[in-house]
Amino acid sequence: MDNSYSSLPNLRVTGANGIDYAYRDAGAGDGVPLVLLQHFRGNLDSWDPALIDALASGRRVVTFDNVGVGGSSGTTPRTVEQMASDAIVFLEAMEFEQVDVLGFSLGSFVAQEIALTRPAIVRRLVLASSAPQGADGMHGWAPEVIGAIGKRETSAEEYLSVFFAGSPSSIAAGKKTLQGVYGRTDGRDTATSWETRNAQYDAVCTWGIPDHAALQRLSCLTLPVFVANGNSDPMILPHYSYLLAGLIPHAQLKIYPDSAHGFLFQHHAEFAADVGSFLNG
């Protein structure tokens, strides 16, 4: 039987808010599960199966669509704070008493807010391609970035231009990622809607309104945190990773070479090993 992420069934659980959350459950183990939070416009199928399989080789890994995204019901909220609240309802519906959380891009904003709002439920936190709330220069993305991945219809070339660096090795890794992401033909998740795109970008822009006082909130994150990014990320510049790691008391930082926003897909084996070592403490 094939237990790889690309063959897992789409499952559903109903939260106390009445939302039916779509999710997939990978790996096994009695330890603390690792819950993943997806990027802007992403759904269950937007994760590279190679990364999930590597992460799930030694632990339980759960991916899910937040409210109004992909196969989950409801309307996508327009603030990161509400997204975090909705994610906590999912964790409660899954009867998770404590989790490790890996947030990617927009998902990393939500992950920060979950850890601040409900610190007892998050044991360790991984922030991939992330930035702190209120950081200067984060009020929306550069025109060439949102022009590439924010249109109604996007192309593989535009995805590669943001998620991967321009080198031959990075582009080759990006094409391999796309093969994995689109390799599943049966039981695919529902595509994210234009309404979700607009709501999520509203949340991104609101999160990025310059606010130096908001940066101080991160001093409350006393749990272990792993901050990571690619060295050529045009969407969330690497210097935000340095800022984030400097604001969080117990943060570790790693910048992966020759990679961009999708560094965790390009360097999936190395990143999964680093995450595993971090989570194992």
Automatic annotation (TrEMBL):
<dbReference type="InterPro" id="IPR000073">
    <property type="entry name" value="AB_hydrolase_1"/>
</dbReference>
<dbReference type="GO" id="GO:0046464">
    <property type="term" value="P:acylglycerol catabolic process"/>
</dbReference>
<dbReference type="Pfam" id="PF00561">
    <property type="entry name" value="Abhydrolase_1"/>
</dbReference>
<keyword id="KW-0378">Hydrolase</keyword>
<dbReference type="InterPro" id="IPR029058">
    <property type="entry name" value="AB_hydrolase_fold"/>
</dbReference>
<feature type="domain" description="AB hydrolase-1">
    <location>
        <begin position="33"/>
        <end position="267"/>
    </location>
</feature>
<dbReference type="GO" id="GO:0047372">
    <property type="term" value="F:monoacylglycerol lipase activity"/>
</dbReference>
<dbReference type="GO" id="GO:0016020">
    <property type="term" value="C:membrane"/>
</dbReference>
<protein>
    <submittedName>
        <fullName>Alpha/beta hydrolase</fullName>
    </submittedName>
</protein>
<dbReference type="InterPro" id="IPR050266">
    <property type="entry name" value="AB_hydrolase_sf"/>
</dbReference>
